Each structure stands twice: as C-alpha cells, then as structure tokens.
Amino acid sequence: MKRVLFIGLGHMGGSLVSGIAKKAIPGVELYGFNKDVEQAENLAKKIGNFKILKNLQDLEKAAIDVIVIGVRPIDFNELAEELNQYNLANKTIISMVNALTLDKMDSAFAKQKDLSLIRMMPNMNASIQESVTALTSKNASEAQMNFAKELFQACGFVTEIPESKFATFAAIAGCLPSYVFTFYQAIVQYAEEHGFNHHEAMEIVGAAITGSVHNAEQNTNSLATMIKQICVPNGSTIEGQKVLEANDFDGIIKKALKAANDKA
C-alpha cells in the first residue's frame, strides 16, 4: 500500500487529487492537508476515497510514503521548516512549486536522510484529467519514478525530462493553455461580431481547433507542408495567412514563449 499526502489543495492540487481518486489506482491511499480545512473537507466530500490530516504531525502516524507539495512559492520555506520537524526518512517528496529546483529542494531538506526528491510541473488541464505533466529527479529510483508516472497519468499525459528543460517546458506546456485560450477567444469574438451566438461560436471554433490538432498529430506531413496545402492560390485562407505573416505572428508567439521561459 502506498500512502500519498497532498499538501496544498488549491486549484491544481485539488484537480490532481480529483483525477487520481477518480482513477482509483489499486494499492494507493490518498491523504490531504490544507491550511483551509473547510476547503479540504469539501473536496473530500466531493471525491470520496480521500482522508484529511488536520495536522502535519499526523503524517508519521498515517505512515505516509509520498508527499506531494503544491503550495505557493512564498509559502514553501515555512512548510519545509515544519516538515523538517518530522522524520521523513525513506519518503519521496514531489514538488510542483513553481521555480523550485531540485537543488533548492535538496537544500531545504538537507537534515533528512534517504529522501527521494522529484520535481513536477502539471498544467491547468489537470482539472479535466488532460494535463501535460513533466517529471524530473536526480536521486529517485526507477520504481519511484514509475510510481509517480502512474499516479499522474490519472490526470493526463506524463513525460520525464531533464531539469535543464523545465523552464522551456513551462512555456510550451505549463503556460500554453492561456495562450490557446487567447487565440480561441479572439476567434470566438470575431464570430460573435459577425452573427453567431456565443454557444455556436464556442462549439464551432472549439471543434475546428481540436480537429486541426488531431489532423496534425496523425498526418505524416510537416506542419509547414500542411499550411501550404490549405493555403491554395487565390483562396481565402492564404489571404488571412498573409496578414499573420505580415504582422510576424510566429515572432509574437516566440516572444511570448521566451518571456514565460525567462521567468520560469
């Protein structure tokens, strides 16, 4: 039996717990701790198969094996100080705290012995079990990494990457939903300005975006070739494409990604 404690049950932590609970992975017991106890209890009522710890000192009594930290960066040091009051030997700590490197985690828990550290980064689509999540570690065993992958695959796609790529991953996957929503919103607004109601616009544009992504995934041609195939001479698509190119659409996207990458 693996007992997994989630510390921090905000939007992301709550979404991950909900997805994992829904999957009902055999041999996994879920626990949660949250400063806002009422929020934690409401989550437990909603998903079931989830126990709340009212104090962190109870993690020893509960024989927790894996601790998943999902607090704000500003709250991490205080949490680490409290956790260091307890014996965490042979446990695995998984952190999704933004910009918290493995070295910083190692330093924060330097007093602990035989502690395995994993860094993770999900995205907001965990709320519908379609997250894209990255994992990395420098001292976790293959079995521990496989368990982490199994755990978070309940919430979507999981990939293991070197930590050196985490900032770029943040830009191209962690932050990407916001940029996709911005693109989606602009097209929906245009449709509404030209006679479609909101529901119609969301449905049509959403299906077009989803279908385009699926087409690109299944097509053996490059994205550049697919663009050329649809931009036939004298057609309507190529006229819009010319506007995108004239305004450096690719460059704007890359500037946004670089800004996110640099911040991460």
Automatic annotation (TrEMBL):
InterPro entries: 6-PGluconate_DH-like_C_sf, NAD(P)-bd_dom_sf, P5C_Rdtase_cat_N, P5CR_dimer, Pyrroline-COOH_reductase. It is found in: Cytoplasm. It is an enzyme of class 1 (oxidoreductase). Its EC number is 1.5.1.2. GO terms for biological process: L-proline biosynthetic process. GO terms for cellular component: cytoplasm. SUPFAM superfamilies: 6-phosphogluconate dehydrogenase C-terminal domain-like, NAD(P)-binding Rossmann-fold domains. It catalyses: L-proline + NADP(+) = (S)-1-pyrroline-5-carboxylate + NADPH + 2 H(+); L-proline + NAD(+) = (S)-1-pyrroline-5-carboxylate + NADH + 2 H(+). Keywords: Amino-acid biosynthesis, Cytoplasm, NADP, Oxidoreductase, Proline biosynthesis. Coiled coil: none annotated. Signal peptide: none annotated. Pathway: Amino-acid biosynthesis; L-proline biosynthesis; L-proline from L-glutamate 5-semialdehyde: step 1/1. GO terms for molecular function: pyrroline-5-carboxylate reductase activity. Pfam families: F420_oxidored, P5CR_dimer. Catalyzes the reduction of 1-pyrroline-5-carboxylate (PCA) to L-proline. Belongs to the pyrroline-5-carboxylate reductase family. This is Pyrroline-5-carboxylate reductase. It comes from Entomoplasma freundtii.
